[in-house]
Amino acid sequence: MHSTTRPIALSRGHLAAALTSFLAGAWLLTPAPLAAEQAGAPFATLVPAVSTGFPNETDSNSPAVWDLVDGTWTLSVFNSVAGRAALSDGPSVRRLVSRGAVRFDGAPPEQGVWFESVIREADAWYGYYHNERANVVCPGSGKVWPRIGAARSEDRGVTWVDLGPILETPAASVVCASTNHYFVGAGVGDFTVRLDPDREFAYIYYSQYAETERQVGVAAARMAWADRDAPEGRIDVWVDGVWMPAERALADGREGDDATDEGVEPPPDRWVYPVATPFFRSANSWDDQRAGVDAFWGPSIHWNTEIQTWVMLLNQAVGPRFEQGGIWVSFNDRLDNPAGWSAPVQLLKGGQWYPQVIGLDPTLGTDALASGLSRFFMAGRSDHYIVFGRR
Q1: In the chain, what are the domains?
Q2: How far apart are CA 314 and CA 351, in angstroms?
Q3: pTM for the full model?
Q4: How confident is the model at residue 369 (pLDDT cuts 50, 70, 90)?
């Protein structure tokens, strides 16, 4: 479902006048302001704009990276669909040209990848992907067991070397009879990875689908950035306010009784990762014996220079097929404090999956860094600017 607001073209002067009105509280597309009404509380709102879109199909968060190419600043964007990632680039988000599918040097991750975050280093780019495994557990169910993996590129994202899986739920968490239409009642994915200001840790904010633990929701993990080239087993998961490390699996590849709920023999796990404590726990998950679904998922996070804080956009699932209830926004001054995110406030009713911000500042604005006026995308298309401020 799309917003029913009709996009309009705005000149620079008209746009400035419109933004003044928006910041004063007029024309708000969001029916309710942020819960914290006191002076200085951050807010976000949408301004209709001429439509634009990525040149490649999109079914995940779409990472964007600026880099110098032959002396020219170039924006590269990765879009993924059906387990295949494609690259586009150009001088701005509105002037991207598709460069085709990315390649892997060596064996690619099994059963496809969806690139959801890319971090640029001086010598390489590091990509983080959503990976779905079918028929590994619960064969014949038509459902998949998602996990998160990492890859490295030394040619600006054209070719990648797989660094392997870095975060998954244990096999014991699988629920083959889950009413979740897509997932086996377990798994992690639909995420964002961001570096802290000191570049000491990469923080992974992700969707967790652990029905057996009643731990469905938005969760957090972290990895020391120094471990980026060998990340497997180096992830700490946020559990009850403590960063808990992964553990080595037992000699037979299992930790304790890891048979699934239907006795399906799980594959060996080289590492066993803790099930996280979501900081946004589902109000009504798929398998909690109540009708309906009410779960946040798919966090997209950026640092906003206008309001000097981190911003998270979220999907809201309200049915077994992740029917969209709306797009929500939350704020947090510290990336290392998962408990510090503000209560989500609805930005848009309905909408489509994978909301995200793309900053408009040349050579700077990406999905990770944006200013007070940026582009708002859903499912690879943008019909709105998104405006940030404080009041």
Answers
A1: 57-357 (2.115.10)
A2: 11
A3: 0.88
A4: very high
